[in-house]
Design goal:
The structure holds two protein chains of two kinds.
Chain A (H helix, E strand, L loop, with lengths): L1 E9 L4 H11 L6 E6 L5 E9 L2 H13 L3 E6 L5 E12 L2 H13 L3 E5 L3 E8 L1 H11 L4 E6 L3 E4 L8
Antiparallel strand pairs in A: 1-3, 1-4, 2-3, 5-7, 5-8, 5-9, 6-7
Chain B lengths: L1 E3 H11 L4 E4 L6 H8 L5 E4 L3 H13 L5 E5 L3 H15 L4 E7 L15 H5 L5 E4 L6 H13 L5 E7 L6 E3 L19 H13 L3 E5 L1 H5 L3 H11 L3 E3 L14 E4 L6 H9 L2 E5 L5 H4 L2 H5 L4 E6 L13 E4 L2 H15 L5 H15 L15 H11 L5 E4 L3 H9 L8 E2 L10 H11 L5 E6 L9 H7 L5 E6 L4 H10 L15 H7 L3 E5 L5 H11 L5 E6 L26
Parallel strand pairs in B: 2-3, 2-4, 4-5, 5-7, 6-7, 9-10, 9-12, 10-11, 12-13, 13-14, 15-16, 15-17, 17-18, 18-20, 19-20
Antiparallel strand pairs in B: 1-8
The chains are: A alpha+beta, B alpha/beta.
């Protein structure tokens, strides 16, 4: 099953390699990984999307907790949560496709943030499935380039991950 | 007063009451060695290869409970140390390794003797640090010692660039450190402990399975008392030997791949399993699916949550420090005033007695060729079971574990997790430094001993009267055994050709050498070594049976009750 694991860790050099090294050393799967400092710059917040059985996910959270620099770990997918991913897509936009691209971007609440005579860059946020659906709607032929940030997530309501 | 980084390193080690630093100097640690030269509180032990420094510091810790300390230079100094560090990490040994690094400005420039020490060692340490400011040295070393010995112990490496050791600042050693990201659990959960005790009291066919955690946390006495109060059989893992007295009637022997018949059968057929400071290793449980075919309830006490339910699902996990949890369990047992099920236990012990009657460790004596098992039995007799025994890795290691009865903790020192050949001799050195009056024997083989044979020189320098028991079968014995059993007798590269004359070799290093090839001479040679040559290093080269195999044996991937016994062949 797909899990979103949120980690609060000391914002120190090498912290990211400890986490990524753990995943490769123990043959755990990483679908995406995002990391950036929090409002308290001594801490980083990392979101990892991983796929595995419940036993494997349990081991992953235990092994993450064992890392000395990890302060807190939660499996966001255990309870109501929000997830978002940002995507930038460069598409070919010429002739009748130009209007069509704009229309699809609007439908998906995307924004066109760069325009040339023949291309658009469209910015889109949403969950995994929405971004996938958008790419599907445009069709491979017109996509020149895509870049995605990977998922970041947060618990709903009173679920707070903080020191 | 301003001190240099190098002086601060030494002051920190003094503050930690470190007696010995095992190490090898080099360019990047020259300032530290210079600072060490100017004091005499801390003694440096010069090895002949960095791997040996780490093994010696490791065994110093294993045999004394103190933190082992070693020091190596950058680049090859560190890479040579990696095998030792990984060995200590697998067996959870508290150690601090101080490594030199090229000057800060050279890092990343492919400088002479540069390597990414923090990167290379990251997967085989509990934690590591790169110090980038002289002001951080003291607090980092304080953290290193704290991390090494608290929680589940392990090696911690501190990498210090050369320029930092020459910068100056005020020295202030923190009394304590706290880290918001590191808070090991000490006390077990009261509710879980209560549930565990109820389950233990209801058990009909119980067993206590105790591992290295009992030794590391100094919980042997508490384990003995609790096991006695319950009257349960006890088995030890390879790492746990000595955690429960081997000569006690409740002890059923070591379990696992080369464990006793009774220990493995009891483990497989129990209805309640109390696992303490052990981790259901593949060499212990064998095939987990086979193990799970039998219904049983498992209680698992361990300080490391990630050890629990890793290979085998447990019913009652208790995260906590082993002696604390054992004490709480015992207190609760006393408070309830209840007793274990005596009637069921009597039947269970009867069953165990029938397994014991198989006498699984018996072997065929031979009047012409020395049987390796016989040497260990005689070693046990001659030393009265009082020696600290270190071992290398292979058949001799298993025979030492099977035939030397360890009654006390910290007397059996071997590389259990990583299985590092070359461990035995430097480990014997470390054990002797920690226990300057102890009898120290290194049980080894002609292949393993050659992996760190250069340490005979260190032994001479520091006059370490280690007794080397070389079980010389002219084979990589365990490799040969597997090739015989699973690879159609094709002995690929397992014959050890071109062996040195070990007697002359020992003598050339200034030690005593003995060559023993007759069974009748075994005991006499051992007595002579341990009495006449008490204060000398004696290299005993025992020419043993080339075909002897270690039994019982569970083939890789098989279940606990699928043992091959010597009598089956």
């Amino acid at each position: 099953m797909r899990h979103i694991i949120s980690i609060l860790m000391e914002n120190e050099a090498g912290a990211l390699s400890r986490v990524s090294g753990l995943f490769s050393a123990r043959a755990y799967n990483i679908e995406s990984l995002t990391v950036a400092p929090t409002e308290d710059t001594s801490l980083s917040r990392m979101t990892i999307v991983s796929v595995g059985s419940d036993d494997v996910i349990e081991q992953i959270t235990k092994q993450l907790n064992k890392l000395i620099e990890v302060v807190k770990v939660v499996d966001l997918s255990e309870a109501p949560h929000l997830e978002r991913e940002l995507m930038l897509v460069k598409v070919r936009a010429t002739g009748k496709d130009r209007e069509e691209m704009k229309r699809i971007a609007d439908i998906f609440r995307g924004r066109i943030i760069d325009v040339t005579e023949s291309t658009y860059v469209i910015e889109l946020t949403g969950n995994n499935a929405k971004l996938d659906a958008f790419l599907e709607a445009i069709g491979k032929a017109l996509i020149l380039e895509t870049v995605r940030t990977g998922v970041c997530g947060i618990g709903r309501g009173d679920r707070i991950l903080k020191v | 007063m301003l001190l240099t980084g190098a002086e601060i390193v030494i002051r920190c080690l003094q503050e930690e009451k470190v007696e010995f630093v095992f190490g090898y100097p080099g360019g990047a640690v020259l300032f530290i060695y210079d600072a060490m030269f100017k004091q005499d509180q801390l003694k440096h032990i010069l090895v002949r290869h960095e791997q040996a420094a780490v093994h010696a510091a490791d065994a110093y810790s294993r045999s004394s409970q103190k933190v082992g300390v070693c020091m190596v230079t950058s680049g090859p100094g560190v890479t040579n140390a990696v095998t030792g560090i990984a060995t200590a990490n697998m067996d959870s040994i508290p150690m601090v390794i101080i490594s030199g690094q090229v000057p800060t400005a050279y890092i990343g420039q492919d400088a002479f003797q540069e390597c990414d020490t923090v990167g290379i060692t990251r997967p085989c340490v509990k934690h590591n640090f790169l110090v980038k400011d002289v002001k951080d040295i003291a607090v980092t070393i304080k953290k290193a010692f704290y991390l090494a010995k608290s929680g589940r112990p392990g090696p911690v490496l501190v990498d210090i660039p050369k320029d930092i050791t020459n910068h100056k600042c005020e020295f202030d050693y923190p009394k304590s450190v706290t880290m918001r990201s590191y808070n090991p659990v000490i006390k077990g959960h009261a509710g879980q402990i209560k549930k565990a005790l109820q389950l233990l009291l209801s058990a009909k066919r119980p067993i206590i399975y105790a591992g290295g955690g009992v030794i590391l946390s100094d919980a042997a006495n508490k384990l003995i008392k609790f096991a006695k109060a319950l009257g349960f059989p006890v088995t030890n893992t390879l790492m746990g030997l000595g955690g429960y007295p081997a000569t006690d009637k409740q002890f059923v022997g070591m379990l696992g791949m080369h464990g006793t018949y009774e220990a493995n059968m009891a483990m497989q057929n129990c209805d309640v399993l109390l696992a303490i400071g052990a981790r259901f290793d593949d060499r212990v449980i064998g095939n987990t699916a086979h193990f799970n075919e039998v219904q049983r309830k498992i209680i698992h006490v361990d300080i490391d949550p990630s050890s629990i339910s890793k290979r085998v699902k447990v019913d009652i996990p208790i995260v906590g420090n082993v002696p604390d949890v054992l004490e709480d369990l015992h207190k609760l047992l006393d408070a309830t005033g209840e007793k274990s099920d005596a009637k069921a236990l009597a039947l269970w012990w009867q069953q165990i007695a029938t397994w014991r009657a198989r006498d699984c460790l018996k072997y065929k004596q031979n009047s012409k060729v020395i049987m390796p098992q016989y040497v260990i039995e005689k070693l046990y007799e001659v030393t009265g079971g009082e020696a600290i025994v270190t071992s290398d890795v292979g058949q001799h290691q298993m025979w030492a574990a099977q035939y030397y009865k360890f009654d006390k903790p910290r007397r059996w020192i071997n590389s259990g997790g990583l299985g590092t050949m070359g461990f035995g001799l430097p480990a014997a050195m470390g054990a002797r430094f920690a226990n300057p009056k102890a009898t120290v024997a290194c049980v080894t083989g002609e292949a393993s001993i050659q992996m760190n044979i250069q340490e005979l020189s260190t032994c001479k320098q520091y006059r370490l009267p280690i007794k080397i028991i070389n079980l010389n079968n002219r084979y990589l014995g365990m490799v040969r055994q597997w090739q015989e059993m699973f690879h159609g007798n094709r002995y690929a590269e397992s014959y050890v050709d071109a062996l040195p004359d070990f007697v002359k070799l020992a003598e050339s290093y200034g030690h005593v050498g003995m060559y023993i090839d007759k069974p009748a001479d075994v005991e006499g040679a051992l007595r002579e070594a341990f009495t006449t040559h008490k204060n000398e290093l004696v290299f005993m080269d025992f020419i043993t049976d080339q075909t002897a195999n270690v039994f019982p044996m569970i083939a890789a991937g098989k279940g606990l009750s699928e043992m091959i016994l010597a009598e089956d062949l």
